[in-house]
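Inverse folding, one chain.
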């Protein structure tokens, strides 16, 4: 019985030591440094150019390889560099939002890479308006006249 308890204890200690060593950050890894992780389109018109760019630099010590970029929905289409970004070099992730959809929006782009932080989320937001849309008619309510109470 003592041997079994000792063996289980040994396994648990080994697992915790292994977990601690795997959490160490690779100081030689590639590293993203974005100018901004949020792009605000502001207010744009329907069917306007929806292409914007996220600019970044590899501030790490290894080549940065982006394996995928995915939009949070079909209206957001990102594209990324296919070649490795060497240390000190810059790159661009392009995002195209479908501006044929009227109304406010906030979408994310998930970037997966070999960087020290392997998954990064970028955000685009704004509001699409249709200047040709008819504005709804707002009817003003008439104030009802209230008779003053009679004095007795």
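Residues assigned per position:
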């Amino acid at each position: 019985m003592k041997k079994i308890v000792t063996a289980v204890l040994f396994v648990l200690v080994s697992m915790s030591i292994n977990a601690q060593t795997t959490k160490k950050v690779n100081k030689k890894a590639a590293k993203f440094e974005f100018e901004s992780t949020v792009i605000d389109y502001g207010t744009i018109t329907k069917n306007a150019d929806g292409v914007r760019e996220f600019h970044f630099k590899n501030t790490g010590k290894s080549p940065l390889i982006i394996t995928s970029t995915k939009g949070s929905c079909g209206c957001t289409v990102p594209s990324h560099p296919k070649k490795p970004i060497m240390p000190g070099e810059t790159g661009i992730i392009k995002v195209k939002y479908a501006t044929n959809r009227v109304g406010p929006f906030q979408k994310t782009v998930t970037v997966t890479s070999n960087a020290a932080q392997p998954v990064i989320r970028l955000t685009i937001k704004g509001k699409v308006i249709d200047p040709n849309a008819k504005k709804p008619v707002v009817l003003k309510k008439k104030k009802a006249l209230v008779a003053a109470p009679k004095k007795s």
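The beta strands are 32-34, 38-45, 51-58, 66-71, 76-79, 90-97, 103-113, 119-129. The helical segments are 2-22.
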